[in-house]
Design goal:
The complex is a heterodimer of chains A (about 425) and B (about 575). With about 425 residues, chain A is α/β, with parallel strands linked by helices. Chain A contains 15 helices and 13 strands. Chain A has 3 domains: about 15-200 and about 285-335, NAD(P)-binding Rossmann-like Domain (Rossmann fold, 3-Layer(aba) Sandwich), CATH 3.40.50; about 210-280, Ubiquitin activating enzymes (Uba3). Chain: B, domain 2 (Arc Repressor Mutant, subunit A), CATH 1.10.10.520; about 350-435, Ubiquitin-like 2 activating enzyme e1b. Chain:  B, domain 3 (Structural Genomics Hypothetical 15.5 Kd Protein In mrcA-pckA Intergenic Region, Chain A), CATH 3.10.290.20. Helix content of chain A is about 35%, strand content about 15%. The longest helix of chain A has 20 residues, at about 285-305. Chain B is an alpha/beta fold. In chain B, about 50% of the residues lie in helices and about 10% in strands. In chain B, helix 11 (about 250-260) runs antiparallel to helix 12 (about 270-285) and helix 19 crosses helix 20. Chain B is elongated and about 85 Å long. Chain B starts with 12 loop residues before the first helix and ends with a strand. The chains are: A alpha/beta (about 425), B alpha/beta (about 575). Chains A and B meet through helix 2, helix 4, helix 10, helix 11 and helix 12 of A and helix 1, helix 2, helix 3, helix 16 and helix 21 of B. Chain A: It is an enzyme of class 6 (ligase).
Chain lengths: ~425, ~575
């Protein structure tokens, strides 16, 4: 049989298909776990070539390489960042000479050159720049984003896109994240299975040090650095916008912190620690990124080809937690969808939130940033009856500002529902305030 | 002159580049990485080994060498990222080495295109390497020879196999592989010795809680919780015939006592230091017992009898065990968690702990020096090593490395003292031991199906006649499982046994479906795992896999077993 007289697929000609010899063993053979109705061969190969995928975020290098070598041919990539020298220890598509260039562009060009036949379309910007129309074109979205905010945004957007009448509007989201030797890979079928918002409390933010500790009784080197960062800069260099990447600025903070630490006999302030605290640096290594990104892409491959069961199928495991510092440990489980999830839950259910009725509205709003189940930084709030506080527009803000110093019990009833919005998210959060 | 502002030590170019990893393994770990020379013996499609190297070149391993006699084929381009079209027909060792080197100019890379058979005929050929990684498939006599070399020269040896959606790797470490810097979770490491306070701590607590009831509100709210707990413990002991809270019931009663002693008329409605004290009761009112692993260590023959030529680790271990025998506790780690307190009080408290820790180190050091003299050690163990040992004594790990299974035709697998535990696990729902057995059967098949008696690679099961091969490999796998059950003397229920056989059969089928192929994602994931373990072994930090890890990419699960 002459293989070159194929179906006109880009990879069909014999020599080209020789390249995918290994992949084709899997694509052309049944396995013990494949669906009996699954058709191996041509259809599977064709499906893989046609699927358009989106990759994004700090795991982007790994994701692009893995998708390209999984046989996907039409890949888009979004990344707003430019290359920093501290990326080079793990983001393997970048070189010293690329520092300062857009990650998405450099990565796309590199992988296109290395893996012949793959088309990679870069977009240098934020995922939030794009709308539903844009996200609609993809079969699967693979994200290795480094901010929880961006994750919640894409999650809410994909959930919002789902139209019950149109099965094609449901876009599976595969999400990976790492921190040092730890990470996770999860698959979300928007509206069908537990979403990122349902799982929000699995990623609790670190508790902030109280301001009074920083101002009056520092005990740790980090307290001195935070003092320099939050208080001293405001006092002494208010007119200069702090730039975390400006060595002069970091040096200034470092010296301020060091002087303060000496005053209180606190050892341990270093330049590197100053940088870490100010920029909130999370350790990141090549190995964990490789593990988590490959796990995400393995799920994308299984999902797109049906060559094996994948994580995320409703009613099955959808989350793999990974820990690599003490031996190797993974925990793969099914995270359950929450009926009171503000993103994918029942519209009529408000999530109960325990609050101290003695809190002022200001204190309550501040606490929302840290509460694992909320994590909202710029909340506006209204009760069923009135606007309690609005960040925007300015005149409404002025009008509602006096409420900030009022106690919660003066503003709402125990068990009353409130609606909170935050500019970072395209949705409203419904909470039921339960007094402690 | 002494008051000059300290010079600003901005980071060096290297520190900038490696910043995100230096925060994990520090400058000492980095140095160890840079001093190593990794040999990759690459076989098969050759992806998993290169993906491993990628994650070692990026963080700055000193040197690597690729030994690979394969010629680049068209099929390599669809699975291997470190090859390009124009390399087809060339040496795979050479081209992959060059493209890997591009990742990091600080790394030296070498290649050898010679077959491993002839490479190993030179007895010195393995000498330059500090760690060896072998990617399957490889002929068993060669793997056995590498294993002998690993044993003889105490060089860590990794054996990796990635096929289709599955992979596994085994690590052969030296028989005594201690790790001092295990990086335990900071939550678990605080050791405040509240039940065994020493005079200076008692005195400090008494000073800070003097006239506690009549303290001004601001003072009362800033007494460090360590002092509060010691204060209330003293009161408790008086009414409990000198005993601290013994069990859960008493501890919760004690916790309530502390909770109810907090003032409620403060501006914030409570006191943070009391909240902290209450939260600390259950976890810090335990006698400071070393873990069973550390007690095991003290009973080890190498620790009990330190002989001439003993390593620094065993000498310090012996000295610390003497300390433990004398006092019933390990040397004090000396760190204090952050707590609500005035700056000066907290610093003073820190110093109380630090100076006790230093005294403990001094005492251990004296024993170390005595031992050094008695075994006529020519060099002194560095103080910082003794200090590090004392600081982390409760979390020290000793891995007893051992050779992994090398399959040989006609020979049964010896499971030894691991047989019982593994046979027991064999029938667990989530066990990946059936997958490991499938891999062993896969290796056995390749041994017995060599294409010729010469240097050609063995035949890959599933490459052409899958069904026939599945039948054979399944048969081999069943025999391995039966032998394991027999060796363990285990009795397994019929229903469990047949279920286990179903699993083994399915694993074999899925393995052979790949026909020896590597899937890039599985190779990349496994390469991530292996490189992580290489880094742990090279830096002697964190805790490595002991000794076999299995990955199931269908279910997205891993499992670690000791074989």
């Amino acid at each position: 049989m002459d293989e070159a007289t194929g179906t006109g697929l880009p990879n069909r000609p014999g020599a080209q298909r020789m390249r995918w010899k290994y992949l084709d063993n899997i694509l052309t053979r049944h396995g013990p776990f494949t669906d009996p109705d699954w058709e191996p061969g041509e259809a599977a190969i064709e499906g893989l070539a046609r699927a358009k995928l989106l990759g994004a975020g700090g795991l982007g290098c790994e994701i692009l390489k893995n998708l390209a070598l999984s046989g996907f041919q039409d890949i888009h990539v979004i990344d707003m960042d430019t290359i920093d020298v501290s990326n080079l220890n793990r983001q393997f598509l970048f070189r010293q000479a690329d520092v300062g260039k857009y990650k998405a562009e450099v990565a796309a060009k590199f992988v296109e050159k290395r893996v012949k036949g793959v088309k990679i379309t870069p977009y240098c910007g934020k995922i939030q720049d794009k709308d539903e129309e844009y996200y609609k074109q993809f079969a699967i979205i693979v994200c290795g984003l480094d901010s929880i905010e961006a994750r919640r945004w894409i999650n809410a957007t994909l959930v919002g896109m789902v139209d019950d009448q149109d099965p094609d509007s449901m876009k599976p989201l595969i999400d990976g994240g790492t921190e040092g030797f730890k990470g996770q890979a999860r698959v979300i079928f928007p509206t069908m299975t537990s979403c990122i918002e349902c799982q929000l409390d699995m990623h609790a933010p670190r508790a902030a040090v109280p301001l009074c500790t920083l101002a009056t009784i520092p005990r740790q080197p980090q307290h001195c650095i935070e003092w320099a960062h939050i208080i001293a800069w405001e006092e002494e260099r208010k007119d200069i916008t702090l730039d975390n990447d400006d060595p002069e600025h970091i040096t200034w903070l470092y010296q301020k912190a060091l002087t303060r630490a000496q005053e209180f006999n606190i050892p341990g302030v270093t330049y590197s620690m100053t940088q870490g605290v100010v920029k909130n640096i999370i350790p990141a290594i090549a190995s964990t990124n490789a593990i988590v990104a490959a796990s995400c892409c393995n799920e994308a491959f299984k999902l797109a080809t049906s060559t094996n069961p994948f994580l995320g199928f409703p009613g099955t495991d959808n989350y793999m937690m990974y820990t690599g510092d003490e031996s190797i440990y993974t925990y793969t489980f099914q995270h359950m969808k929450k009926s009171d999830c503000p993103v994918c839950g029942d519209d009529n259910i408000a999530r109960p939130l325990q609050v101290d009725s003695d809190f002022t509205l200001q204190e309550f709003l501040d606490s929302l940033a840290e509460r694992p189940e909320a994590q909202l930084k710029k909340p506006s709030i209204r009760s069923q009856e009135k606007s309690l506080y609005y960040q925007f527009p300015p005149d409404l803000r002025e009008q509602t500002r006096p409420n900030l110093s009022k106690k919660l019990y003066e503003l709402v009833q125990n068990g009353e529902e409130v609606v909170i919005t935050d500019p970072a998210f395209p949705l409203t959060f419904k909470y039921k305030l339960v007094f402690k | 002159m002494a008051d000059l502002p300290p010079p600003v030590q901005g980071p060096t170019a290297k520190e900038k580049k490696y910043d995100r990893q230096l925060r994990l393994w520090g400058a000492t770990g980095q140095r160890a990485l840079e001093e190593s020379h990794i040999l990759l013996i690459n076989n098969g499609p050759g992806v998993v080994g290169l993906e491993t190297l990628k994650n070692l070149v990026l963080p700055g391993v000193g040197n690597f060498t690729i030994l690979d006699s394969a010629v680049v084929s068209e099929a390599d381009l669809g699975v291997n990222f470190f090859l390009e079209e124009e390399h087809v027909g060339g040496s795979r060792a050479e081209h992959t080495c060059n493209l890997l080197k591009e990742l990091n100019p600080d790394v030296e890379g070498y290649f050898v295109s010679e077959p491993v058979e002839s490479f190993l005929t030179n007895p010195d050929s393995l000498k330059p390497y500090t760690l060896i990684i072998v990617a399957a498939p490889i002929r068993p006599e060669l793997l056995a020879r590498l294993s002998e070399h690993a044993s003889a020269s105490s060089i860590p040896l990794f054996y990796i196999h990635s096929v289709g959606f599955y992979s596994h790797f085994s690590i052969h470490l030296p028989p005594s592989f201690p790790i001092v810097d295990t990086h335990p979770d900071p939550e678990t490491t605080s050791d405040l010795r509240l039940l065994r306070p020493w005079p200076e701590l008692v005195q400090f607590a008494e000073e800070k809680t003097k006239d506690l009831d009549n303290m001004a509100p601001d003072d009362h709210g800033h007494v460090p919780y360590v002092c509060l707990l010691l204060y209330y413990l003293k009161g408790w002991k008086k009414s409990h015939s000198g005993q601290p809270p013994q069990n859960y019931k008493e501890k919760t009663a004690f916790r309530d006592l502390v909770k109810n002693s907090a003032r409620t008329n403060s501006p914030g409605g409570g006191e943070e230091n009391y909240d902290e004290a209450v939260a600390a009761v259950l976890k810090s009112l335990n006698p400071p017992e070393p873990s069973s692993a550390v007690k095991e260590l003290f009973k080890d023959p190498e620790c009990l009898l330190v002989k001439e030529g003993a390593s620094a680790f065993w000498i310090i271990a012996h000295a610390v065990s003497l300390f433990y025998t004398k006092y019933g506790v390990l040397p004090l780690p000396g760190s204090v968690p952050d707590m609500k307190a005035r700056s000066a009080d907290y610093i003073e408290l820190q110093n109380v702990y630090k100076s006790k820790a230093r005294r403990d180190v001094t005492e251990v050091t004296e024993s170390v020096r005595f031992l050094e003299r008695s075994i006529k050690r020519s060099t002194q163990i560095e103080e910082k090593d003794i200090e590090a040992f004392c600081k982390n004594a409760a979390h020290i790990k000793l891995v007893r490395g051992r050779p992994f299974h090398v399959m040989n035709a006609g020979k049964t697998v010896q499971w030894g003292e691991r047989a019982k535990a593994l046979a027991q696990n064999l029938t667990f729902q989530d066990s990946l031991i059936p997958l490991y057995i499938a891999f062993l059967a896969y290796d056995t098949f390749t041994v017995s199906h060599e294409k010729d008696g010469l240097d050609n690679p063995p035949r890959t099961p599933g490459d052409t006649d899958t069904d026939a091969d599945v039948e054979q490999v399944t048969g081999i796998a069943f025999k391995i499982a039966d032998d394991l059950i027999k060796e363990a003397g285990a009795s397994i229920e019929e229903s469990e046994y047949s279920e286990m056989k179903t699993w083994v059969g399915e694993y074999v089928q899925e393995l052979l479906r790949a026909g020896g192929s590597e899937l890039h994602n599985i190779a990349a994931l496994t390469g991530g795992l292996v490189s992580q373990e290489v880094i742990k072994v090279v830096t002697e930090q964190y805790v490595p896999v002991d000794n076999t890890c299995i990955f199931d990419g269908v279910k997205s699960k891993t499992s670690v077993i000791r074989v």
